[in-house]
Amino acid sequence: MNYYPYGKLVSGILLGSSLMFLLGLIDDVYGLGAKFKLLIQVSIATMVYLLGVQIDSIPFFGGIDLGWFSYPITLLWIVGISNALNFIDGVDGLAGSVVTVNAITLAILAITLSPPNPISALIGFILAGSMLAFLTFNFNPAKIFMGDSGALFSGFLLATISITGVMKVATLAILLPFVVLAVPIMDITYSSLRRIAKGQSPFVADAEHIHHKLLHAGFSQKKTVVILTSVAILAGGLACLFASHNAIKYDFFLTLALVGIMLLLNLVRVLTKK
């Protein structure tokens, strides 16, 4: 018996996100080894895959059914995006801002593509709303932090709703999440390749991510957040432009309004700070 609309898909997202949050929480409190965390993440992603959250095909050459390759590709996407959000959580307000823009964009795509998926869109808008509330206390200087629990939870939700809300609705739509999630994808790809080239483990943290490069170039934390958030907005706008002419209008209005709200809240807090 299915207890949620869309059955096992939503059950997998809710259960998987809860387990991913719990994993991050335990890591925040006790500190877990990178290989052990990866093993648990793969286990969670496997469970979600068995519940139907799957990347089934790719659009090239008229559409190719992935078959058994669907499993490793889906795992790579879910685990990769989950950790990508954790990687960019190195500057106050950055991860939350990128998650908010990405969640809104994916939600808009989920309800504008045909057939629409309102459940995935609802999850995206809820995630964006919760991040907006979080960001009022997370901008520099931050009073609270996302931690591994928040980053893994948010990344997992972005990865799964991009599959259920975008990749499953149309053949070419499988490419859209790669555009929407350009900032975290670029960062985790760059970081992993750089560490491997140096003979280091891609799971060992360092201070050479894209946001660190901007900080070393002389940009402040706030300017770094604005730059990378602007890239996320541009990527979201391009994805909506590729998907639908109607969606781009809503995407630009919502994301630009979002950035304005975030900057205004930050400015008010700075001005009223004693």
Structure description:
This protein has 274 residues and is mostly helical. The chain has one domain (75-272). Helix content is 71%, strand content 1%. The chain contains eleven helices and two strands, in the order ααββααααααααα. It has helices at residues 8-30, 34-50, 70-87, 94-112, 118-135, 147-167, 176-180, 182-197, 210-216, 221-243, 245-272; strands spanning 57-58, 64-65. The protein has a two-stranded antiparallel ribbon. β1 and β2 form a beta hairpin. α1 (8-30) packs antiparallel against α2 (34-50) and α4 (94-112) packs parallel to α10 (221-243). The longest helix has 28 residues, at 245-272. The chain is globular. The chain starts with 7 loop residues before the first helix and ends with a helix. The relative contact order is 0.14. The model has no long low-confidence stretch (mean pLDDT 79).
